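Private note to self, pasted from the team thread so I don't lose it. Backbone tokens:
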């Protein structure tokens, strides 16, 4: 029995040692990537110091070009958009960012799937696992899945979906990222199937709306100008699906600029890389369109 206990303790100690040593390796890869998503996401969480930050999903990182904003307004700008993510991730990143400095303006590009509707919320916290012990982050995990705080003691768990990407971005990054902007250099060569009327069902997620409201309240406390936008969608006819978020934004008197059905961009296929994302030409056109709006807030 005593031998069994000793072997068990030795085995557990070995697992813990492997986990800690792996964590040192992963932390190094995460903070020393030479490009790609790893370097971009580390910069967003730990190094941004720009005047204007852009939050949102892939529609944010494909639709807003920081260099155009910088050249037009003589301010610094970085695109913090990340594929397949919304308010739950961005609230956590907002906490990490404002722990270091206070940006002047945050542009938030809304998407119903990631900011309003109900789905698997735990997946949105994947990029925050390695920062779980920083101010305010563990509260997010507790709200989504309380058991996560125990799993997060493991460094292997924190990085279990990121190792290949980190390794690649430390050797030869594949993704072109320009101040967080990811250009699409192709033009959509098909016609998407039209959504049947009444077929789309939206179930509002109260947790997402809770954190949307927390972001609004916190930016007001810190004196950060928060501007909401809905960027163009291909052949969109109405943005009624955003009503739950619009109601909260209106309650706090914040600006929301709705380009979802923009006549110039939404119905011109030459501006689209696919049915959800603008190509580089479309992103240039859209970014220039919002410059007069941003200029007023810079003043």
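Design output:
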């Amino acid at each position: 029995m005593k031998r069994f206990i000793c072997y068990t303790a030795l085995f557990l100690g070995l697992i813990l040692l492997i986990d800690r040593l792996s964590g040192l390796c992963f932390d190094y890869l995460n903070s020393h990537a030479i490009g790609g998503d790893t370097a971009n996401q580390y910069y967003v969480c730990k190094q941004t110091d720009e005047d204007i930050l852009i939050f949102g999903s892939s529609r944010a990182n494909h639709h807003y070009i920081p260099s155009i904003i910088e050249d037009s307004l003589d301010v610094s700008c970085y695109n913090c958009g990340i594929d397949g993510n919304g308010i739950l991730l961005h609230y956590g990143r907002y906490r990490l960012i404002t722990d270091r400095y206070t940006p002047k303006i945050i542009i938030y590009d809304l998407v119903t799937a990631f900011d309003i509707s109900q789905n698997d919320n735990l997946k949105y916290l994947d990029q925050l696992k390695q920062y779980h012990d920083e101010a305010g982050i563990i509260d997010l995990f507790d709200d989504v899945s309380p058991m996560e705080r125990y799993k997060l003691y493991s460094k292997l768990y924190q990085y279990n979906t990121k190792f290949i990407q980190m390794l690649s971005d430390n050797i030869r990054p594949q993704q072109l990222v320009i101040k967080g902007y990811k250009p699409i250099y192709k033009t959509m060569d098909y016609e998407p199937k039209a959504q049947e009327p009444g077929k789309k069902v939206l179930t509002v997620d109260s947790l997402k709306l809770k954190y949307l409201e927390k972001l609004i309240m916190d930016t007001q406390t810190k004196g950060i100008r928060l501007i909401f936008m809905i960027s163009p969608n291909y052949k969109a006819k109405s943005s009624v699906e955003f009503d739950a978020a619009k109601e909260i934004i209106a309650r706090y008197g914040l600006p929301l600029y709705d380009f979802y059905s923009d006549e110039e961009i939404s119905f011109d296929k030459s501006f689209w890389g696919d049915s959800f994302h603008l190509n580089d030409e479309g992103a240039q056109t859209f970014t220039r369109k919002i410059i007069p709006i941003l200029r007023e807030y810079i003043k």
